[in-house]
Amino acid sequence: MTTTGTTHRAAAPIDVAVMARQTRRLAADLRTLTGPTWEQTGTALAALGGTRPTKVCLIGDGDSYHAARAAEMAFETLGGTDCEPLSAQRFLDYHVDLPAHTGGAPLVVGVSSSGRTERVLQGVARARARGLATIAVTGDADSPLARAAAAAVTVAPPDPERSPGIRTYQASLLALLLLAVRLGGPCGAGRPDQVAEIASLASAVDATERALQGPCEDLGRELAAGPVIAVLGSGPGEGTAKYCAAKLVEGAGAMAFGQDLEEWWHVERFAAPLDMPLLVLAPPGGAHDRAVDLAARAAALGRRVVAVLPEGAPPLEGPNLRTVRVHGAVREEFSPLLYHLFAGHLATGLARHTGRLPFQSHRAAGPAGD
């Protein structure tokens, strides 16, 4: 979860419309931030001596952890390195001391937009104290996290406002994807063609956001009565699913969770009530066919299913099936930049139709930044 990076005591309620405003600015952010962030990834790796790591640990909490999960595939297939996304507490309790015993010293990338997430800060500080290479991905160059790491990539959308993190999530995800691309090139030079590919997605982000706003806000009315909303994805899509569920929780007070496609099919499909809402992400890639098949099967069981599909994919038809479309061609590694876009507008619709406000249950203390 993200605000502007600090805890706001007795803060005024956050306007529901902020989520739609944030989503509308994502295309412009992608255009503005890609080039400078790419340059920073090169500087950060050079500050570590330019040695290419054989393993990367991505650590974060909340949106930062979800961005790490969404970027994992890019590190492995484009960056050519093993990658392990971990919640910061898990890293602290079970992973940071392992390299001394196993001989495998990873690059540790701590992700926190505010730069003040306590467990991420502790994880990076302890990793550096043990001689591991560390990079901070943060929105504040003067934050404790930026100072704790050996190098930092600062990516901050301009003109921030208090909100459930939408622009900050994309910024963290962008930095991680560009770091993965940087690792994939010779001698830290990266692949400029893949950077251009990311930058070119701004048009698809814009087209998708415009196409989804009305339908997703209308879906908020239809799904508002559901006791629980599940969001499913696999591969990079699982990180996206967890992020999208988080926006429904933080932005609209809905009970929602993100889950792997097959894990949901093996366990949660048996949960009552049978018409419980289900959002299925089906980006292009390894899990696309299974996602489409699961969506149809879940609808046949009585679930109210919303499938998020590429614009050229065949429509899903049935009494319990709805389809929303993502515009633009995208490789699977970069698909999280497009497939999270519906979340802000759906959270807006849910909040309006339930009368809830973002972070409503925490209004007295205000939400803590991630």
Report what the structure shows.
This protein has 370 residues and is an alpha/beta fold. It is 48% helix and 15% strand. The chain is built from 14 helices and ten strands. Helix 6 links the parallel strand 3 and strand 4. Helix 2 packs across helix 8 (167-184) and helix 3 (63-77) packs antiparallel against helix 10. 55% of the residues are buried. Mean pLDDT is 91; it is low at 3-10 and 362-368.
What is the residue-mean pLDDT, rounded to a whole number? 91
Q: How many DSSP H or I helices?
A: 14
Number of strands: 10
User: Helix- and strand-based class?
Assistant: alpha/beta
Largest sheet: 5 strands, parallel
Question: Tell me, what's the shape?
Answer: globular
| Strand adjacency order, main sheet | 2-1-3-4-5
Helix content: 40-55%
Low-confidence stretches: 3-10, 362-368
Task: State the main characteristics.
370 residues; alpha/beta; 14 helices; globular
Short account of what is shown:
The chain is of the alpha/beta class and 370 residues long. The protein contains 14 helices and ten strands.
